What does this fold into?
Amino acid sequence: MTDARKPQSPIKGRGAASRVAGRFDVTQVEGMDDGWGSVYEDLAEAPRPATTVTEERARSILTRNTSPDVGFSQSLNPYRGCEHGCVYCFARPSHSYLDLSPGLDFETKLFAKTNAVERLREELAKPGYVPQATALGINTDAYQPIERRYGITRAVLEVFAETKHPVSFVTKSALIERDVDLLAAMARENLVSVHFSVTTLDNRLAARMEPRASAPHAKLRAARRLSSVVTEKCTLTRFSRAIAAS
It folds into this structure.
């Protein structure tokens, strides 16, 4: 059943303000004014939901597609859900497959694939496996805040570096600086590309659009540092920049 209670104002630090129904919900609840007032009217602001992480063991780890609309055919997502909470995220509806809301649940009820390295090694060891550039973190940012705790992205990247397997990233997080040692080594062999998504340089607007992603200046700092390890054969850092109007 969907929680249809909707705060009267945005929740600080979150992109969504309610748990809207998922596309597969059998029962949907819609709030209405019964004259008794809002459950939030006595609060200075809407309550802030905590982030929870469920550890899960994935049955498979590589996802393949044949769509002509995306620039990759193979991807790996270390997590499900994303705490960055970007209001425009295309991946939000994927939480509906878990019977969870694409609203608040997508950014507060996260899943960590703790056996990602084990599954990846199994995939790469298959006799018929053909190496191809793998996009890391498409339905979720591979460097979202919980990566500091779990380190799954780092562990997966170590396997790709060990096997000299090409990878690419699109991220909104300066946490990627932590792995500059691996990225630099892979860049020297033309095995990695990193793309930063910079939607705006306005800190206040960024805080509303992508509340738990790195601030614009932190992304630029990370890009500058990663650019310093670029070799002649590899462009390590590229930008996807669209200035949003406030």
Observations:
- The domain at 61-79+123-241 is CATH 3.80.30.30 (pyruvate-formate lyase- activating enzyme).
- The chain has seven helices and nine strands.
- The CA atoms of residues 112 and 149 lie 10 Å apart.
- The chain has a mean pLDDT of 83.
